[in-house]
Design goal:
A two-stranded antiparallel ribbon has the order 1-2. It is globular, with a radius of gyration of 19 Å. It has one domain. The protein is mainly α. It has 12 helices and 2 strands.
């Protein structure tokens, strides 16, 4: 009989294919959107500028995610819900097309679908940099981490992770309202993404072997300066592989944040966005090939026993 890991790997392959070739359902039919609505209502009931209340919020969300995964049962179905690979790629490509058409206004309008920064004063290169950073960070959040936690814990792992990451997006960011209430969600998301982010960086090095030293240098020297212990690793890896510079000063409404510069080279352009998409595809193929090799070896060892 196939091992649990082999079954989960097969489920991952099926979910990735479904994610690639089936359209994203509208929000009113998407379980992640339902979860977001439920957590918004819970926040309205629980919110205080207090870590304990935030931990209660986070614990409730984790419980809902784990229960939903147990109820769904199928790792394929759960991971299909948790993945966001294709929607990320399509949005990034759409913005690249707008930049290539010199439609800066439309590109600015589309950017909030990927990032939270204020796009109103961004030029084309700044928009391209924001998209490439999002492709890097969200390749971990939307692809590598859900797959990793599915392999570790099956359907409950996939939907528990998606619950953690969704809560972080909702309340884990730095603001007066969420500095304390969102602390637990932000820290738990850091823990859940720590290993997947570094797995992604390793896959990027394997996918861009000629830039391996640049990737490693950027991850080691630039990544730790980023406010996120995981986004910094992912963004630095992609910056090193593409020989571009990411990061810098960002505006979030009235708040200005001075991010470190990641990588060395020119600022990205619209063409860099497609290069980033292609790099991520190669990195995921490398990861899949590695996983299949591990399964083949595992099966061979089982037969020899």
């Amino acid at each position: 009989m196939a091992s649990t890991l082999a079954k989960r790997m097969a489920a991952v392959v099926a979910a990735v294919i479904l994610d690639r070739f089936t359209p994203e359902p509208p929000n009113r039919w998407h379980p992640v959107a339902w979860f977001g609505t439920a957590m918004t209502k819970l926040e309205e009931q629980l919110w205080l500028n207090d870590r304990a209340r935030g931990l209660l919020y986070t614990g409730t969300g984790v419980t809902i995610g784990a229960a939903a995964g147990t109820l769904v049962g199928s790792p394929t179905a759960a991971l299909t819900i948790a993945l966001g690979t294709e929607s990320l790629r399509r949005t990034a490509t759409d913005i690249a097309d707008l930049l290539l058409q010199d439609d800066l206004s439309a590109a600015r309008s589309a950017l909030p679908a990927l990032v939270g920064r204020d796009p109103s004063e961004l030029d084309s290169r700044s928009i391209a940099a924001a998209v490439v950073e999002s492709v890097a960070e969200n390749s971990v959040d939307a692809t590598v981490a859900p797959i990793f936690w599915t392999l570790v814990a099956g359907a409950p792992g996939a939907l528990t992770y998606r619950a953690i990451n969704t809560m972080d997006a909702m309340v884990g960011h730095r603001s007066d309202r969420y500095a304390r209430f969102g602390w637990g969600s932000a820290k738990l998301d850091d823990v859940a993404n720590w290993l997947p982010a570094r797995m992604f960086a390793a896959a990027v090095m394997a996918a861009a072997p000629r830039q391996r030293s640049s990737v490693l240098s950027a991850v080691r020297s630039d990544g730790p300066a980023h406010p996120s212990p995981n986004a910094g690793v992912a963004e630095a890896a992609v910056a090193g592989a593409l020989s571009v510079e990411l990061g810098g000063t960002l505006r979030y409404g009235r708040r200005t944040e001075h991010r470190p510069l990641l990588g060395a080279g020119p600022r990205p352009t619209a063409t860099t966005i497609e290069q980033a998409n292609n790099l991520v595809d190669r990195a995921l193929l490398v990861s899949a090939a590695t996983g299949m090799a591990i399964l083949i070896v595992e099966r061979a060892v089982r037969k020899d026993r």
